[in-house]
Each structure stands twice: as structure tokens, then as C-alpha cells.
Amino acid sequence: MQLGKKEARRLLLLTQGLLRKDQFGRGRNAVRKIIDRLSWVQIDTISVVERAHHHVLRTRVSNYDPQMLHQLQVGDRYLFEYWSHAAAYLPISDYRYYLPVMHASAGKRVPDAKLAPEILRRIENEGPLQSRDFESPRGRNSKGWWDWKPAKVTLEYLYLAGELMVAHRDGFQKVYDLRERVLPDHVDTRMPTDIDWCEFIVNRMIGAHGLASEYDIGYARAAIRQLTNRNIKKLLRQALDNLVEDHQVCRLEIEGQPYFTHPDTLSELPLRLGRRLVHILSPFDNLTINRRRMLELFHFDYQLECYVPAPKRRYGYFCLPILYGDTLVGRLDAKAERKINHLEVRNLVLEDKVKINDDLIAALKQGLLRFAQGNECKSISVLKTTPGSLKKILTRELAC
User: By CB distance 3.0 to 4.6 Å, which of 107, 129, 215, 399 could disulfide with 133?
Assistant: First the structure.
């Protein structure tokens, strides 16, 4: 079957919960459905605006509150934290498919063979603890955030090895507890075979995005290789071939490029867009994290510039992609000044081919207002735009 890129984008956006407002409903149940669909939500430390995990969920659930995520993890024990392509919240039902990574991590050299059992003993006796509950060795001077004290390194080893789990977070700091006290009894803990593991990866990547190329399916491969010292490219290829042969996955062609989807996903076509909304996306959003897919399907060449030296930045330290309907139309560099409840739009740049009209202005205004509200900001200032005329227009509209 052949699809145009427009159809492919809409299928991707529908699957991701971004084609229409509140596609998965509202409230905690909608958050649960979203994480089930996405299969992971990345956790990130940068807090120029709302942290990535909250940002991703708020983009899809209009009445999202961080307590919903906390309740799903701690109260319902529906989620757990572990490493996907990066640190992430994951459905607890997927736990067994992370056992290969835990097993490989456990086989690595223990950072401190004497400290590890002492940490486990203290947590068993005292209950959940953070790294700061373990003092640094006397006389040790920290050289910065990369110079972790031995206890923190060992805690992370025990966490990656699966002996400890994150019970919850205090602020943004992990609170560790023993696996048996966090993991619900009903969770399947059987080690999957290699092919079962890779079929899970294939199905999850396709299911989360509606369609996927081989590159998309193997997107997490680098992280898996780093954590397990295993190159699973051939296994993923075999798993994909098996699923195609069993008619669980079918092939697509998008302007000459091969993609894969689940047969029932195609029943969603054709897709109507409806009212075009503006979503200001996190750089770590499940839609945007794969930069190659953004370029191939959306013709949007994107780079997160906080990793670029300041003199070489084109758009700003933490530029956020702007989705308008089914098109990525620009980037926003912003900072939430939380002490004064103010959102500073430092730079808003539209793509060259974007036509500015009343519909776009209205959608941008509402998107900025929702984004400010999500960042607990009551006022917005616009410092710079491209084209330059947009600054005056937005300033006027936002003042209304």
C-alpha cells in the first residue's frame, strides 16, 4: 500500500494523540491511556520551561496535573521508571521486556563491591532512601555534577541492575526502594526470549507511532547496545520479518520509502484534520525526539541548541517545535520566569513558507496562552520574531 506524506503525518499524529484536542479524554485515565500508547515518556532535567515528562502529557491532556502522574506511579503502581532510549516512565505491564537490559547491567562490574550490600541493607531496614541519605567519604571534594559520590554511582548500578526501583521522586530526586517492595505481585517477571523481546520492540515502536521505518524501529538500539553490549540489529530484522510473515505487521510505501504498520491502524484512513490547533512541543516529545523522522515526514530540520555553543545558536538555548495542524511551522525559544509568573518569548521563528493569516494568528495566540498557563505564567512578553512583523501582531493579540 502507498501513502502520501500528508496521510502519513496525520496517521502519526492521530496515533500520538496530537491530531485533535483531548483525543484520549481528560484526567488521570487519559494520562494512563497516553502512556500506554506512547510506551514511554522521557524524563529530563532541563527546567527552562516545564520539565519534559509533564510537558509531553500536558500537550495531550488539557487538564493534566503532575499529581496524576504521581498517582499513577505511586498510588496505582501502574508505571515504573527505567531506561528506554533514555530515562523514562513506562507502563508496568511492559516490565518483563526490560529484564534483558537489567540482566546485562547486573553482569557488569559492581562500582563498589563493599558499598552495594550496605546500601541494600540500609534501604531494607530504613525504607526508601535518596542518594543524599548516603554521605560522601570524609575529605572527598566534589568537582561538579559529573563527579558523583560513590553511593550515587552504586545506587544507579543497583537501579539499572533491577535490584532497586524508583519508589517516587522528592522534587526531582529519585527515592529508591527494594524491587520487591515496589513491583506489584501480579507483574510478569519471566525473562523473554531474544525474539520475543525484539518483537515487543517492533510492535511497541509501530504501535506508538502508527507507522515506522526500520530506522524508527531501531531508534533505541544505541541505548540498548550501550547498556547490554549487544547489537540487536539482526534480531530486530528477524522479528520484523516474522511479524510481516504472520500478517501482524504490513508493509507501506511512503513516496518510495518502506515503512511498516499494523493492519488495524490503516482502518483509520482517510483522516480529516478538523480545526487546526497549535501545540508547542517539548524537544523530548515522542513525536520530535527522532530528528530524522521529523525531517523525512515533516520536512523540518531540527536541532536542540542547548548542546550548541552559544555563538553558533540560530534560534535559542531551548527552542521548541511548533505544530500547527499537521505541519511543523516554526520554533519557539522561551523561558518561564516562575518567581513572577511570566513567560518570556525570547525568539519565535516561523518557517519561510508559512503564510501568516488570521487563522494562524488565532491558533498561535491560543497555543501560547495554553503553554503559559501550563507553566504557571499569567503574562507573556514577545521579544523577537521572524518575520519581524509578527512581534507587533502577537503582542497586540496577547494583550487582549
Answer: 129
Q: How far apart are CA 347 and CA 116, in angstroms?
A: 48
* Helices marked H in 84-169: 99-106, 115-126, 150-160
DSSP strands (E only) in the chain: 2-3, 41-42, 79-83, 87-91, 164-170, 173-178, 250-254, 257-261, 278-280, 319-324, 327-337, 342-350, 379-382, 385-386
Contact 231, 225 (CB under 8 A): yes
Query: What is the model's pTM?
Result: 0.94
C-beta of residue 207 within 8 angstroms of C-beta of residue 262: yes
Spatial separation of the C-alpha atoms in residues 394 and 283, rounded to whole Å:
23
CA 100 to chain centre: 22
Q: Which amino acid is at 70?
A: H
Helix (H, G, I), strand (E, B) or coil at 166: strand
Burial grade of 354 (CB within 10 A; 0-12, 13-18, 19 or more): middle
CA atoms within 13 A on the CB side of 162: 18
**Closest listed residue to residue 96, CA positions, set 204, 7, 242, 219:** 204
Is residue 386 classed as helix, strand or coil in its secondary structure?
strand
Cα gap 318→335, rounded to integer Å: 8
Cell numbers describing residue 387: 518575520
In the chain (400 residues long), the average pLDDT of successive 10-residue segments reads 94 96 96 98 95 98 97 97 95 97 94 93 97 70 56 95 96 95 97 96 97 93 85 93 97 96 91 90 97 97 94 96 98 97 98 96 98 97 98 95
